[in-house]
Design a protein that fits this description.
Blueprint: E1 6-8, E2 11-13, H1 16-37, H2 59-81, E3 86-91, H3 98-105, E4 111-117, H4 119-131, H5 133-138, E5 145-149, H6 155-164, E6 173-178, H7 186-199, E7 203-210, H8 216-226, H9 241-248, E8 254-259, H10 260-267, H11 270-276, H12 285-292, E9 295-302
Helix pairs in contact: 1-2, 10-12
Length: about 300
């Protein structure tokens, strides 16, 4: 299979598609680094993940990045700040700095944070963390932070790694997939979601990805992304709210779905939104509304975990 790693000596050979998907972690890092550097959100650790100076991005990208970060933090921070022990599983974590942001902001919170990604990404991230004293100090407790090198399509192996790490099956657990599932083939992404819902008795899944591929804007969006070699393998199978629901049920018992546009209009903090809207001159409202209506947030829950947008 083209998805299998072929080991030749110490050099793994992977498909061009997988390499392109891995490159999206660098793109996310670039957009988040720049947005943070000009004040869209606070994250002193994101710049430590990148060797280069943040590359300037367009205002519409910066605002979109802020909505993405804000929506995850809105769910994640109250979950972390709550009483008792809890777990966060970040699937396809890339070069994300969320663990460090949380550990620094909530030093007394009792939580375990586990990241999973391709071996190449993990090797790169571990190298960055070990060279930076601030990051190395925050991650030094293995009972608080773990990083797993594993292809998310290899569920048997992922299960073995979780068992090896003694990942708690009953503790409240938030699973995050940030623009990850859409790059997987439909069967693999559904199997992964169903496995998560079966493995963790009390859990929530927070997913963010592109939808609505069949209208004129959607067709251009898909074409632009796929021109870079990133095949959106799951967008047609899970391009509507109903299809998104079908992927998370029945492993999760309750599901809430919103477009990023609805989230921005209905849920985003008004004072924070007013602050953000003053950072840069912006007049691309028609494109902004179209862009945000082609991304969704899915929040699925089961057991004792009761969180909402």
């Amino acid at each position: 299979s083209k998805y299998q790693y072929i080991m030749e000596g110490k050099k793994p050979k992977i498909s061009y598609t997988d390499l392109a998907v891995q490159e999206t972690s660098n793109e996310a890092l670039t957009s988040k680094s720049y947005a943070a550097s000009i004040g869209y959100f606070d994250d002193p650790f994101i710049k430590m993940m990148s060797k280069s100076k943040p590359k300037k991005m367009y205002p519409i990208i910066n605002r979109g990045t802020w909505v993405r970060v804000h929506s995850y933090r809105r769910v994640l921070e109250p979950f972390i700040a709550a009483e008792g022990f809890k777990q966060v599983i970040s699937l396809g974590a890339g070069m994300d700095s969320t663990f460090f942001y949380l550990r620094n902001k909530y030093p007394t919170a009792k939580f375990r944070y586990i990241e999973v990604d391709f071996p190449e990404i993990v090797t790169k991230k571990v190298g960055v963390m070990e060279k930076n004293p601030a990051l190395a100090k925050l991650k030094e407790d293995p009972t608080c932070y773990s990083i797993i090198s594993c292809d998310l399509r290899e569920l048997e192996r992922l299960n073995e790694e979780f068992v090896k790490l003694k990942v708690d099956k009953t503790a409240p657990t938030l699973i995050m997939t940030e623009c990850v599932l859409v790059y997987m083939d439909p069967k693999s992404s559904k199997d992964l979601v169903q496995w998560c819902g079966t493995y963790f008795e009390n859990s929530a899944l927070l997913n963010y990805e592109m939808i609505n591929p069949s209208d004129s804007f959607g067709k251009v969006m898909v074409s632009n992304i796929e021109e870079r070699g990133c095949k959106l393998l799951g967008i047609y199978e899970y391009g509507t709210f109903e299809q998104q629901k079908g992927r998370v049920l029945p492993a999760f018992s309750k599901v809430e779905i919103t477009t990023l546009l609805e989230y921005y209009t209905k849920y985003a903090d008004k004072a924070e939104k007013a602050r953000v809207e003053k950072i840069e001159f912006f007049d691309e409202y028609e494109e902004w509304n179209m862009l945000l209506s082609h991304y969704c947030l899915v929040l699925a829950t089961k057991g004792t975990v009761a969180i909402a947008f």
